[in-house]
Amino acid sequence: MKLNFQKKIAARIFKASPKRVVLVDDALEEINDAVTREDVKSLINKGAIYLKQEKGVSRARANKIRRQKIKGKRKNPGSRKGSKKVRTKAREMRINTSRKKREFIKNLRAKNKITAKQYRKLYNMIKGGFFRSTRHLKLYVSENVLRREE
């Protein structure tokens, strides 16, 4: 006996595919007699017709990889895409470069190459993003600050 019609009605009630609708073998005669939507609904309530669970994609592997990445693994050359500049955050880059520049002017002050006033001025210029790099800072210091003393 063909029960495609009953399957189709059940699928509409479940709002799912007819492929997922399962008809119990013991109640096939009863299912065959079901003609209306109400008949099918009553069979669903009895348990003669039910819906298979939807197949999903397992997240187990993805979760395992995520846990490893949190630990700091999977970061070797084979896993990298992009240069060091791209992979480090812009904020971290900015912090690192400004620290290098500040260290440089700190050494100049310690060696008495610049005064405290000049140090403060250079520090604020670094803070404002005036210098592109430490090389630019050295160039500026040699041209402007150290020349004035002579």
Structure explained in plain terms:
This protein is mainly alpha-helical. It has two domains: 4-51, 50s Ribosomal Protein L19e, Chain O, domain 1, CATH 1.10.1650; 85-149, Orthogonal Bundle (Non-ribosomal Peptide Synthetase Peptidyl Carrier Protein, Chain A), CATH 1.10.1200. The chain has helices spanning 4-14, 28-33, 37-46, 60-71, 84-87, 90-110, 116-127, 134-149; strands at 21-23, 49-51. Strands 1-2 form a two-stranded antiparallel ribbon. The longest helix has 21 residues, at 90-110. It is rod-shaped and about 105 Å long. It starts with a helix and ends with a helix.
Strand count, sense and barrel status of the largest sheet are: 2 strands, antiparallel
- Quote the distance from N terminus to C terminus: 108 Å
Structural class: mainly alpha
CATH architecture of the largest domain: Orthogonal Bundle
| Total domain modules | 2
Helix fraction by DSSP (H/I, runs of at least 4) = 55-70%
Q: Would you count the extended β strands for me?
A: 2
Strand content is under 5%
Radius of gyration: 37 Å
- Give me the number of helical elements: 8
What series of H and E elements makes up the topology?
HEHHEHHHHH
- Which class of the largest domain in CATH terms? Mainly Alpha
Shape verdict: rod-shaped
CATH topology of the largest domain: Non-ribosomal Peptide Synthetase Peptidyl Carrier Protein, Chain A
* Biggest β-sheet: strands ordered side by side in the sheet: 1-2
Average per-residue pLDDT, rounded, comes to 93
Question: Which regions are unreliable across 5 or more consecutive residues at pLDDT < 50?
Answer: none
